[in-house]
Amino acid sequence: MIEAILKKALDGERISGEDALALFSTNDMLLLGNVASRIARRKRDNRVVTYIVDRNINYTNICVTDCDFCAFYRKEKDDDAYVLPFETIGGKIEETMALGGRQILLQGGHNVHLGIEYFEDLFQKIKEKYGIHLHALSPSEIIHISQVSKLSLEETLKRLHRAGLDSIPGGGAEILVDKVRNQIGPKKCTTDQWLEVMEKAHGMGIPTTATMMFGHVESLKDRVEHLLRLRLQQDQTGGFTAFIPWPWQPGNTKLGRDLKGQKAVSGLDYLKTLAISRIVLDNFDNIQSSWVTQGPKVGQVALYYGANDMGSTMLEENVVRAAGTVFCLDEKDIRRLITDGGFTPQKRNMRYEFV
Length: 355
Fold this sequence. Notes:
This protein is of the alpha/beta class. The chain has one domain (2-347): Alpha-Beta Barrel (TIM Barrel), CATH 3.20.20. It has 15 helices and eight strands. Strands 7-1-8 form a three-stranded parallel sheet, covered by helices on one side. Strands 2-3-4 form a three-stranded parallel sheet, with helices on one face. Strands 5-6 form a two-stranded parallel ribbon. α5 (116-129) runs parallel beside α7, α6 packs across α7 (153-163) and α6 (139-148) packs across α9 (191-203). The longest helix has 18 residues, at 220-237.
């Protein structure tokens, strides 16, 4: 049955949710990786693996959603709570540009004191002074801003776009199944709300990415449902440029303590989930390796399990780091990993255009 499903995928036929769930039962990792890798090579230039030089700037760590899986957020009264001043954000942007960076990833907590005017002012200043690509604000942040500002979602997106928002990262997706979301982050947006942000953004010509954070309380069926919801959305609006599956990091989190020290996802589970994602998401051109959570070696192996992109140099990363997972690679390291894996490294922008 597994071989029949994989042959169907190689022949260009869309596999079902039942097919995808069945693939999780296989122990033939080499066959699964081979099929996922062949599909990936067809999607993009055969031996090219892309990457981007950017920085993840967290403008605030103050958050009211209290997600059990997160080690990054702080309450307003905590000693280490912050909202970065523009001068600090500007300094980080200047460092990024000096290293060849072409965009910044700007994300933060759900801070009730930061409404639409704060982001309009911040984005306009960044654009006027630096002109850099703004890949900013996950859907859950955008919904929070609309609620704090008492604006419709559409008006919020329009104003952010006019102020300089170029694209939207796929954070906050976690697992797009509400029973899971209600367990790990009940104050965050629903599945339908997350997808609505992406639908409206795509309709305005704003490209986005999509993510999946797995390896906590979800079932394999939930992982498959997540992939199917993304595939359907991509069928309808076509604005996702890439998919990034990454394993939850349990360190320093309430959920990690509640699950009695549950270990992080194994390398094999990560690679299997990555490969199945590549096979299911037939309408996504790009799948990103998560070396930030898995380390450079597994990140490199991911190129043989369906990934065709090594993601970002991550000149700064704070969310995964807060959970105790710290891996660092510069552009030279990423290019070496790609080359040593037998591929050709190619710098890109958010739209996966070569630069």
